[in-house]
Structure formats: structure tokens, C-alpha cells
Amino acid sequence: QVCPRLRTPQLPIWLCSITGRHGVLFGTDSLLLSDWKTERVFHLYFYNGQQEQTKTAHLTIDTHSHHWEEDRSEDPSSPGKRHPSVEMAIRTKWAGATVSWNGTDPFF
Length: 108
Description:
This protein is mostly beta strands. 9% of the residues lie in helices and 26% in strands. It has helices at 4-7, 85-90, and strands at residues 13-18, 21-26, 41-47, 57-62, 98-100. It is globular, with a radius of gyration of 15 Å. This is Ubiquitin carboxyl-terminal hydrolase MINDY.
């Protein structure tokens, strides 16, 4: 039998399989599960346990960013426009969100 806390977590947590590697994307704000207003700007953390990741990545998610503020001078297919797989996974839940890596070099 599964414990009720495992069926309904108190904090937001997602197990991810990104490009064949497993990781955990989680938040520390329980309101993210129950109050849609907290989905404006919030923090998530990503950890995959791989050797190249020395600490948990702290990500800031902004779901109300404006796509038209992006640099239009760059070709959308250029390498500078490609986004890390972690960001693309986040956008499956929050379409159009911008992700700040807060000083960590993006990986995946």
C-alpha cells in the first residue's frame, strides 16, 4: 500500500528522463501545488546525480515573460537560440516560460 504522502506530495517534484538521463526537478514552495498565482515567478531546482553536476542547479522560472523581448537579430535556427533540454521539459508544463540558470552554466 502506498503512503498518502507519496500519492499527494507536499512539495512539487517531478522525476525526469531527459535525453536518456534521469533527474529530479523540484520546488520548495508548497503553494506551487495549490495556488496558480504562485506560478508567475518561482524557483525550481534540478539535480541529476551525474559526475559533471557538482551542485543542484537553481532555476528561476518566469511564466509571464514576453517572447517579443528576445533578440530578433538572431536567426531562430542558430546555436544561440537552442535551449537546454531541462528548459524544454519545464516548458511542457509552463509553455513560453523563460528560465534563468542564476549563474550556473546550462547543461543537458
